[in-house]
Amino acid sequence: MSGARRRERLAASRLYLCTDARRDRGDLVDFVSRVAGAGVDVLQVRDKTLTVVEELRVLEEVRGVCERTDTLFCVNDRADLAAAALAEVFHTGQSDLPIAVGREQLGADVVLGRSTHSPDQAAAAETDPDVDYFCVGPVWETPTKPGRPAVGPDAVRAVAATRPTTPWFAIGGIDERRLGQVLDAGAERIVVVRALTEADDPAAAARSLRNRLDTA
Predict the structure, then answer these.
(1) Inter-axis angle of helices 28-36 and 52-69, nearest 10
(2) What is the pLDDT of residues 115-131, one digit of tens each?
(3) Cβ within 8 Å of residue 27, ≥6 positions away
(4) How far apart are CA 6 and CA 72, in angstroms?
(5) Cβ count within 10 A of residue 3
(6) For the chain, which has fewer Cβ within 10 Å, the N-terminal or C-terminal residue?
(7) Residues 59-86, buried b or exposed e (16+ Cβ, 10 A)?
(8) pLDDT of residue 111
């Protein structure tokens, strides 16, 4: 698939999921299959407990699900793993690999995303030609990013007020209960973790979030 087509799909995305490898449950393939068929557009596995060999195996399994469900497949942090796993999307944080280096290593067709934690960082991502999308957050404190202060809905509102042309997602502590606040602040896309990974019925939770995003 061309980079242009991947970027079109990213721009049309609304619901982005980050999940660990679910080793405590042993149901990763079943879980990602269920949510990918229920409204998740982008799927990233982020699990710092895995060895490189384990992570490659997990990424290959998830890529297979994404290919079957037409879901964008994302790798986080490491460009070498993204290349080895044939990722369509590669995401980095502010202290990770510089975005230009990611582009140099992965080429023009891989969609590159960047985490931002302030309106100023979001503005920098908006003007960077190598950034295909960015995330704003964490909107609320979350155990997946311990020690990272929350930016609050006001930061989302400040970014939305600049009307970025680069697709962007609100991230951090967002669930069904809080979704209205980020929508009211101007976000059109969200990244979630526990809203799906800890849901009793992940597919139903994904459908509910996606319906609200589509009808907002």
Answers:
(1) 30
(2) 999 999 999 999 999 99
(3) none
(4) 8
(5) 15
(6) N
(7) beebbebbeebebbbbbbebbebbeebe
(8) 98
**SS3 assignment for the chain:** CCHHHHHHHHHHCCEEEEECCCCCCCCHHHHHHHHHCCCCCEEEECCCCCCHHHHHHHHHHHHHHHHHHCCEEEEECCHHHHHHCCCCEEEECCCCCCHHHHHHHHCCCCEEEEEECCHHHHHHHHHCCCCCEEEECCCCCCCCCCCCCCCHHHHHHHHHHCCCCCCEEEECCCCCCCHHHHHHCCCCCEEECHHHHCCCCHHHHHHHHHHHHHHC
State pLDDT tens for residues 139-153: 998 877 777 789 999
The C-alpha atoms of residue 10 and residue 61 are separated, in whole angstroms, by: 21
- Count of alpha carbons within 13 angstroms of residue 75, beta-carbon side: 26
Q: What is the pTM of this model?
A: 0.96
Closest to 133 (Cα-Cα) out of 72, 196, 182, 81? 72
Give the Cα separation of 73 and 3 in Å (integer).
Answer: 13
Which residue matches tokens 């393939």? 29
Can you tell me the distance from the alpha carbon of 42 to that of 36, in angstroms, rounded to the nearest whole number?
8
The count of C-alpha atoms lying within 13 angstroms of the C-alpha of 142, restricted to the half-sphere facing its C-beta, is 19
Q: Which tokens belong to 6?
A: 């991947």
Residue 79: pLDDT band with limits 50, 70, 90: very high
